[in-house]
Every structure is written in C-alpha cells, then in structure tokens.
Write a structure and sequence with these properties.
InterPro entries (chains A, B): Ald_DH/histidinol_DH (IPR016161), Ald_DH_C (IPR016163), Ald_DH_N (IPR016162), Aldehyde_DH_dom (IPR015590), Aldehyde_DH_Superfamily (IPR050740), ALDH_KGSADH (IPR044151)
Strand content of chain A: 15-25%
Number of strands of chain A: 23
GO molecular function (chains A, B): oxidoreductase activity, acting on the aldehyde or oxo group of donors, NAD or NADP as acceptor
Structural class of chain A: alpha/beta
Organism (chains A, B): Pseudochryseolinea flava
Helix content of chain A: 25-40%
Distance between the termini of chain A: 57 Å
CATH superfamily of the largest domain in chain A: Aldehyde Dehydrogenase, Chain A, domain 1
CATH topology of the largest domain in chain A: Aldehyde Dehydrogenase, Chain A, domain 1
Keywords (chains A, B): Oxidoreductase
Radius of gyration of chain A: 25 Å
CATH architecture of the largest domain in chain A: 3-Layer(aba) Sandwich
Protein name (chains A, B): Aldehyde dehydrogenase (NADP(+))
Strand order of the largest sheet of chain A: 2-1-9-8-7-10-11
CATH class of the largest domain in chain A: Alpha Beta
Oligomer: homodimer
Amino acid sequence: MIQIEGKQLIGFTDHAEGAKTLRSTNASTGDKLQYTFSKATRDEVALACEKAGTAFQTYRKKTGIEKAYFLETIAMEIEELGEQLIDICSQETALPKTRIESERNRTKNQLLMFASMLREGSWLDARIETADPLRKPLPKPDMRYLHVGLGPVVVFGASNFPLAFSVAGGDTASALAAGCPVVFKAHSAHPATSELVAKAILSAAKQTQMPDGVFSLLHGDGNVVGMQLVKHSQIKAVGLTGSFAAGKALFDAAAQREHPIPVYAEMGSTNPVFVLPGALRKNPEELAKGFAASVTLGVGQFCTNPGMMLYRKDTSSEIFLQNLKAAFENTSGGAMLTDGIFNAYTTGIARHQAIDQIDVLAQGKRTGENNSAHPMLFKTTSHVLSDHPDLAEEIFGPTSILVEMQTKDEMLSAARNLSGHLTATIHGTEEDLLAHEDLLDILTQKVGRIIINGFPTGVEVCSAMVHGGPFPATTDGRSTSVGTASIFRFTRAVSFQNMPQQMLPAELKDENPLAIWRLINGVRTKEAIK
Amino acid sequence: MIQIEGKQLIGFTDHAEGAKTLRSTNASTGDKLQYTFSKATRDEVALACEKAGTAFQTYRKKTGIEKAYFLETIAMEIEELGEQLIDICSQETALPKTRIESERNRTKNQLLMFASMLREGSWLDARIETADPLRKPLPKPDMRYLHVGLGPVVVFGASNFPLAFSVAGGDTASALAAGCPVVFKAHSAHPATSELVAKAILSAAKQTQMPDGVFSLLHGDGNVVGMQLVKHSQIKAVGLTGSFAAGKALFDAAAQREHPIPVYAEMGSTNPVFVLPGALRKNPEELAKGFAASVTLGVGQFCTNPGMMLYRKDTSSEIFLQNLKAAFENTSGGAMLTDGIFNAYTTGIARHQAIDQIDVLAQGKRTGENNSAHPMLFKTTSHVLSDHPDLAEEIFGPTSILVEMQTKDEMLSAARNLSGHLTATIHGTEEDLLAHEDLLDILTQKVGRIIINGFPTGVEVCSAMVHGGPFPATTDGRSTSVGTASIFRFTRAVSFQNMPQQMLPAELKDENPLAIWRLINGVRTKEAIK
C-alpha cells in the first residue's frame, strides 16, 4: 500500500509549503475521506516549471526506444498499484469498480500505443531532399526535416476520466511521447487517485533513468495554480479536457502571454444525433434502447454524450417516441462526480423546464446516493430550437432533448445553425443516407467525427480517431486529443540544411538506421540513400 | 495588354464603391504611376467573405485533380501576363527585372508543386482502422480519417516578394490546394501587380469551372480592410508575411473573436550566424564575401537576411574582419520597396549609431535612387548585446551587426538568450562542429531551420523546408509558410465511423481507387482492403 501524503511531487522531490486545505471526498456519500492535500505555493509552481525546463534539455535527446521503455514502465507501474488504485478512485469518483478497471486498461493501452509508435519510429514524418549541386540557376541544398517536441507541457486533469484523461492519460502520454516534460495540475475531484498515478510515473521515470523534472504533480485551484502554470515562460503548450469556461480562460491567458502558446482544450459538445425517416421506421425499438443507453451511460458524464436528437415527424415517429419513452424510463441515474457537476446539471435541467414549449418525454429512475442525477428526456420542436439557440449547448449529465422537425429543410437548417461539436451522428437506411448526402456534407464541416448508425459515446483509441472539432468544441479545431495524431499537438518541424551526416539525428541519416518510412525527394520509402 | 482598373475583384464581378485614393508608385523614382485604386468599402469586404463562404461549399468537393488543374492553369495564366507583369512589378517595387523573372518562376513552381502533390493524392494522410466486431470487451468500429480544408482563408500580400509571397504566392497556393477559397488583401506597395495576378487567377478559375468567390482581391488599409476581414465570421484562417506589429495585431484580433481562428504570420527574424574558430581561420575571404553578399542581396529585403554574426576573437579574427570590411565596402545599396521600409531602416541604423559601444566596421556604396538604402555593417561585443537585448531584433534592410565573443561560453550564453528566429547558421570545420554540438542543440530549439556552412537567404521550396520558427519569428511556431507542409496550416482532420463504402471519399474507399499511400491498422501501404 502506498501512503497518500498530499504533497506536491515536483520531479523526484516532495514539497508541501502550502496550507493543507484540500480534502478528498467520497463522491457517493459526500463524506470527506481521510486524505488531505497541500495547495501548491507560487514558489512550488515555479519550481515545477523550472525543473521541467531543465529536464527538457535531457529528455528531448532520449531516443524513441528510451521513451517507449519509459511509457511501458508507467503502464506496468499503474498495474502494480492494484486494488488500491481501484478502491480509492472508485471512492473519489462514485464510478463503479468495473468502469475504473476498464478505464485503467484504456490508460495502459494508450501508453502502450504511443510506446509502440515510438519503437516503430516513422511517426516523426522524416523528409529528405537530397542536394543537386548542378541545378540551374541555383544549386539545390540538402534539406532534412523532422518533428521535435515543443517543450514543457501543462496538463489539467479531467473530472470525468480520473485515469484515461488524467495524470497518466492521453494528454500526458502524447506529450511524453513527443519528448515534452509534463507538469500536471491534479483535478480536485480525485487528488488521491492522482497522487497514486503520479507516483507510478515517477517510479517509472527513476527506473528508466529519465531526468528529474520530466514529470511533476501539483494540487491547487485552477484559477490560481492553473493560471500561474499557463503563464510561466518555461511552458510551451497546454492540454485540458474540461468546461468551456475553464478552457476559454486558459486559451485567453495563453494568447495574451508575451510569447503566446497553443492551448488544446477539449470543452465538450452536445453531439447531435440525426435520425432519418427510414431508420426510424425500420427498428424503432433498437434505436430507442441504444439512444437511451448512450444518454445515461456513466450518469451521462461523457464529452460525447448525445445531448440532442433531431428527427422528422411522420406516421412512424409516434411509435419511436413510445419506444424511447419506455426505454428511457428504464434507465437509472446515480451519484455524479462532484457537487459542482451536480449543481450545473440541476441548473441546466431547470433551464429547460422553465421554457413552456419544452416537454418532459420521460424520466429515468432516481437513486439514493449523494448528488444523484435524475435522467431527463425532453422534447420540443424546431421552432423552439430556432428561438432558443442555447438549447444546443451541452448539459453535462444524463439528459437529452428531442427536436421534432417537419421537413428535411428544417433538418438541414438546424444542421447549418450548429456550432462546432466533437461528433455528429446520422441514423439512416442506405436509401436514407443517399438521400441526405447534403446533411452529411454540412455535418462534416461542424464536427471532428461523423458516426453512422451508432452512438457517439465510446471513443476508439487508434490512429484514425479525431476527438476534437471546431470551436467551441475545442480551442483548436485542427487537433485531436485521442489517438496517435494527438502527438502533433506537442511538436513542431525543424529542418537542417547541408548538415554533415554524423551530426544528423538517426532518423535523417543516409543509411536509415532505424528503418523508418521517410519522404525522400517526394517519394515515400524505407530505403537508405546511397 | 490588360487594363489596370483599380477595382475590387470580388469573385467574378468587379466593384469600386470606395474612394479612388490609392495610387501606385514607381519605387525607384518616388513618382506616382498612372494607376489609381479604390479602397474596399465595408460592404465590399463583407461580400468577398460571403462569396468565399458560398464558394467553399462547392470548392471543398473538388477532387485533387480538379484543384491541380486550377493551380496549373493559374501558373499558365501568370506566364501569359508576359512582359507587362515584369514591367509593372519592377516599376512598383524597384526590384530588377531579372529578380522579378526568377520570382515569377518560383511562383509558378510553387503552384505546380502543390498541383503535383494534389495529383499524387497521398498528402491528406488517409488513415483507416478496420472493424473487428468480435473484439472483447467491445467491438472495434470501422474508423477512417483524412484532412479537409478549414474554410475561407484571408491572405495578406508581402511587400518584399510581390509575386512569390503575394497574390498567387505560397499562402494562396497552399490554401487553394487545401480546398480553401482565398480572400486576398493586396499590399499597397504593388497594387497594379496584384491586379494583374488576380486577373490571372480569376481567368484560371473560370476556365476550370471553379465557383464564383473561390478567389477575391481587395485593396485598402490593413488596419481597416484587414481587420474587418480577420473578424468576419466566414473567415477560418489567416496567412501573412509582414512586420511584427502587423502580425501580432491580426493574431490578437483573431484570438479575441467569438470563435477564434488561427493566424499564421511570418514576422521575420535576425537569423543569427555563428562562426566557429576553425571556419574563420580556414577561409576568411570566402566567408567574408558570402556573408557580405547575403546581407545585401536584394537590398537586404529578405526575411532570412542574416542580421547578426557572432564569432570568437582570436588571432585569425582580425584577418577575417579585414576581409569582411573589404567585401562589404564593395557592396551596393539601392532603392527600397517603400517609403515606410526606408524610414524604418533609417531609424534602425540611427538606433545602432546612437550606442557608443557599437562601431561601424564598413559601409557599402551609396546609389542615387529614391529611398536608396546605405549598406551598414556594425560591430560590437557580447557585453553590449547582453546590455541591449533589442540588438537581436530585426532591422529590415542591408545591415548586420558583428558580435565579438571572448569564449565559447559567451557564445552559448548568447545562443540561449535568443528568442525565436526563422533560421540560425553555423559555420565550422568538421572539428568545430563536433566540438559545438551543444550550440547546435540550443539553436535547434530557437529556430525552424539550421544551416551549416551556408547562408540563410535562399529558401528552397520543397517537401523538407521549414520556413517558420518559434514566436516572435511567427505567431504559430508549429507551422511553415514554405514547402508542401504549409498546406496543413489550412486543414484539419475528420474521422468517419462505420460509414458505408459508397458515401466515403475516394481516398478512404476499400479499393483505394486513387492508389495513394494510407495508414491501415497502423501499417503504411498502397494496398486496397479486401
């Protein structure tokens, strides 16, 4: 058993100068747990950033294989935390142990995915243009290009994924893979979980000879510790999964720095689901069950929760609604992650209920825990959506709103009025889909991921995932925070002109010692240059 | 001969509601030319943006081959402008006709480079993860990923490259290649040149059936028309090569929009050149001549002009300085591009001269044109640089400052104190270079391109170029504005989950009809999926 000490873990040393005023909470009961945490002082924040800056000078030179070994060792150390991690995480978040276990697997798999990418080595997009000293009118120089890490990255933990989007989650894994040290601001909803995972990372760092400062964990308030981190000159990028307010505040602060830095904030979305007439007729029961399950999965606490469904009123839509009512009434709520999330959910629900033209179609079952969310399914019409565009804003929790459309044009118009979202889903028969290519075309411009005949919850961690989307879904619609492409949030390309072979990084040497894919004079190849 | 009409070219229609108060100037004489231009009104600016938004809905669906044909036709139409383009451009900029001719070649080659990339098709990074319905605990969905254009892009013309970084320059070519319509704000230093090239683009657009609004040209003030463009809701990204003040103002305006958008401003840099002892001893004459030529090439009006040289004082440095003095005194100035650039040059030179510890090592020859810059080579010591860090800021024009160092440590310290630049250069023998790997390591963190034993002027347009660098060299250190990778400034990735084959873009269909490179389940291949 690891003792929870409640300190800042700044590289390989512990610090606790600040007041021990943070308490860990049992989210299911609302009771305080025995763990107390010190808030990072200004000096401690600065120390973590300075150490990260120093560590970058060593860490950036580690080979892909060395970094892969570090990530693999983190995965192993997380496994070693065993039941203690599952127990504490479940207490702090009210998430069931089975969910925590599967999230632990995902966290480990993310680390291993990046490790595997680093071992293979082609990810850094090596490009070579060989010299042509005889070219007219000017000789062509030898140019070689690859990606390097930006520098120390600040990552903020997400409340809703205490492992997979937290201390050793996707942002940390991709930043470390890119060659960037990480200063991690723990989420106050799971500080003990954070400490356990941070200790696993630091143990792995020591075992694999990574530099002091390659990782630090800090506790404190986002608008104090978080803002200080984002403004520190050593910090070169920021990763966050959180609310619009938090993400936008960090984006603004980063843009106003003397030297602005990129902020990758994934701020959630409503993830609209469009149901086309054929799909609605074909299998109303399955569709209704799938939708009700997606809305209420994990007490609706997913960024990709489908918060809005748009469908066409016709002879079969009544049957579909009956099925949906029955399916939804069969769902259950449960304890939410934090008081703040529960209060925001309650406020959001009340906002819908205050509008006359919004009906309650169905309610899920109440449960007795602390902060237990009551699943709510609302229904309205396209005119009400037009009059209240804020209905398309996310309410984080087990709720969704059905919007009934009279015509295809109304549906297209609603699609055009959407702002940026992470996902959009279309349910349709083959015939439906072919008749709605215009809808697909509009939605492709609004989101990072289009789902056909499925549900948006469940984000596959792989090379082809985009978990991102145009503003306000994220602060940088060109990025993804899930999948292998997420590494490019924390890199930039550098090119070397006429550099002697012996000084080139291995990835760019003529003989291609790592046997990676490279673009040589515009042709993709694994061949060496002779 | 094409008549210069001085209107806004908004898609396929001309507009001239604003006052005709812009005059084209003969830069060599300062005389006004016969061409007058109307400044775009607010309504005209809005119309260009709205037309670009509408055009995007068609243009984004054009195939790679259709877009390639458009770009190739633009190159042909520019060639068709013949001597009229060379004459007018040379008058407006005071650049010699041979330089304009080679810049026209570069402009055409850039268009053809992107056309070739579009015809080949692999650039959009297609990624496919095939489904595994039997995977436990959850089935794996079919995920397919590719890059799409962001939407309409505003591009600002650069004064110093009236063709290659102007109307049909690299920013326009890469945005059009990405599938983004372009609204172009002409630089007031070469409005007639801009009109000619814009007409070539619009003629190509008509010939190749591109939509009305795929390209527009506007005249006016940067802080009026430019700001309105950057704030327009239809605009999704901005490209600029210009001053720090202009780039930073646009960056701030874009970050403060309700929906922030990326700004890629290349704002120039001092491009430090480090000369190591062996190189200085080995061939002082050649090095001196090469440096003097690079500083004064094109009256020093290049973003990559080497504005600072750092070297170690030793027994051979005096010989090198004598060579440099002789070589520099043999250089000539010439007419600068605009009054504003000449005045800024004069002010910058006066700022150096006002500091006691900065000496004039050499002066180039004066010439008699309007706004003729006098080449100036200054010399100082590392202590003065430490006391006046603004000496490392760019003075745009034919000048540079030599900084004499006593020790290697002083040189490393000066390197560490650099902010972001486009390039850094090291001159060294093989022995020198191996003894200065620490210097190379520092510089790699400060710039987009490292040059060994060469000079930074001359930016090869190819797949392996990075013409970018950390702030303040650019507003987005992750990007390049030259080379094929510049297209990714104007794209984002989208993924499709479980999309039926017939609705997928050709690049993502199983059979790989375009025979492009794809990443399938993590493996790079041109194979079809069976």
